Amino acid sequence: MISVTLDHPWLDLDLGQEMQVLSWAPYRAGFVTARHILWREVRNADLTENFDAISWLENEVSTRAEQPAVAMLTSRNIRMNSLDTAESGRFLVSCLTTLGLTNAERVGTRLPPETRDYGTINLALVITPGLTEAAMLEALSIATQARTAAVMDAGHDLPTGRATGTGTDCIAIACPKGDTAYAGLHTDVGEAIGRATYAAIAAEAKRWIETEGKE
Question: So what's the pLDDT on residue 121?
Fold first, then answer.
């Protein structure tokens, strides 16, 4: 059973047990084993050109009791988060996300750095029962697709076109080890991944646009 704890400036997703986690998170990226997925809020003012965010985050995580962990950074107020779940067949998927679009981009284009602030979309998926490593890679692609669809449907337009994400998005997939070999759109697990991810991202994109967006 997962649990979510807000302890500002930290948001902790406790997986309930050690699981295999796949991500490109700034702390413990790749295929690792972890019990917790952490968000660490930072201020935009802290993220200066010479700030070594990776080393700083490693030191911050080392002071926490939640180990082993994977950790992500966000300048979004972590009190603004959404947790959504979806079931299909025997699969249950939970998606926890924080979302800011202050450095949104349209895929295939780039805005000049001086025209944007820091912001990011961080999301973590917990999938049960388990998947193979290959299926986790496919699951990551489905979560990315759902994230992009929800951001596009939110309608945040940029000089380069409709936003598809931000320049610093991060996705983490967690699940027990298992023998399910596929996680595409035709599968139960792929459907649940897409539905949970889309719902969480859509909710937070709507909230950000209504409260923070520069339309």
Answer: 97
Under 8 Å between Cβ of 194 and 184: no
Per-residue pLDDT tens digits for 26-76: 999 999 999 999 999 997 667 666 778 899 999 999 999 999 999 999 989
pLDDT at position 53: 85
Contacts of 40 (CB under 8 A, 6+ apart): 9, 10, 57, 60, 61, 71, 72, 73, 74
Instruction: Please state the three-class secondary structure of the chain as a single string.
Output: CCEEEEECCEEEEEEEEEEEEEECCCECCEEEEEEEEEEEECCHHHCCCCCCHHHHHHHHHHCCCCCCEEEEEECCCCCCEEEEEEEECCEEEEEEEEECCCCEECCCCCCCHHHCCCCCEEEEEEEECCECHHHHHHHHHHHHHHHHHHHHHHCCEECCEECCEECCCEEEEEECECCECCCCCCCHHHHHHHHHHHHHHHHHHHHHHHHCCCC
- HSE-up of residue 101 (Cα within 13 Å, Cβ side): 30
Considering Cα of 20, then 23, then 26, then 31, what sign does the dihedral take? positive
**CB of 7 within 8 A of CB of 42?**
no
Q: What angle do CA 9, 139, 123 make, to 5 degrees?
A: 15
Q: Which residues of the chain have pLDDT under 70?
A: 44-45, 47-49, 114-118, 214-215
First vs last C-alpha separation in the chain:
40
